[in-house]
Design brief:
single chain, seven-stranded mixed sheet, 7 helices, 7 strands, about 35% helix, S-adenosyl-L-methionine, Ribosomal RNA large subunit methyltransferase E, RNA_MeTrfase_FtsJ_dom, transferase
Length: about 230
């Protein structure tokens, strides 16, 4: 799979595709389908063999922060459908890559995928065993299912971020990095304080591949100081 710049050189906009409302399809489904058909990142992901447009989010974050450079062990929490695992394998094929997701996911050559709930008590040990040593990078693209209530959705997603951070603190190598999806407004003050205590730098960023109308942002923490 070839790489493209996040500037979007090959992702030009052709004529807009309009989707007619079909019998049995709701207006919301029609709008989703029209958005997919007109999304240049969706088209480019398909052209390059990526499983989702989310692959470009990690590529853009890596371009900005050098997350994958020199990483030997990488964990992807909430890995399905596998776009981020594909990017990691493509960029650092020599690295040990372990993904986990409750959903079934097609294999990615050279990566180990665990189908289990990350929140299950046995999940951290299973991930650690598959890694075979401290992780250099812990990625989390997990988000709780939204119910449309902004405050509740934010709290549920933050609970996942906190759980992912707890795993990272226990399993990151010194100097490692942690990346997690958060919602608009970023991580709350308590979580940011914990991140700053554990890492040398903490940034909030919205990669270009994130849809403009989406509430998602990412927190990028680098330079892990150790679990002590």
């Amino acid at each position: 799979m070839s790489k493209t710049s996040s500037s979007g050189g090959r992702r030009g906009q052709p004529g807009k595709v309009r989707v007619k409302t079909a019998r049995g399809r709701s207006n919301a489904s029609t709008r989703w389908l029209q958005r997919q058909l007109n999304d240049p990142y969706v088209r480019e992901a398909k052209a390059q063999g990526y499983r989702s447009r989310a692959a470009f989010k990690l590529k853009e974050l890596d371009e900005k922060f050098g997350l994958l450079r020199g990483a030997k062990r990488v964990v992807d929490l909430g890995a399905a459908p596998g776009g981020w695992v594909q990017v990691v394998r493509e960029t650092i094929p020599q690295a040990r890559v372990v993904g986990i997701d409750l959903l079934e996911m097609d294999p990615v050559e050279g990566a180990e995928i665990l189908q289990m709930d990350f929140l299950a008590d046995e999940a951290p040990d299973a991930l650690a065993g598959a890694l075979g040593g401290p992780a250099d990078l812990v990625l989390s693209d997990m988000a709780a299912n939204t119910i449309g209530h902004k405050q509740t959705d934010h709290l549920r997603t933050m609970a996942l971020v906190e759980t992912a951070l707890d795993f990272a603190v226990q399993h990151l190598a010194d100097g490692g990095a942690f990346v997690a999806k958060v919602l608009a407004g970023g991580a709350d003050n308590q979580l940011v304080g914990e991140l700053k205590r554990r890492f040398k730098t903490v940034k909030h960023v919205k990669p270009p591949a994130s849809r403009k109308g989406s509430s998602e942002w990412y927190v990028v923490a680098q330079g892990f100081k150790g679990a002590g």
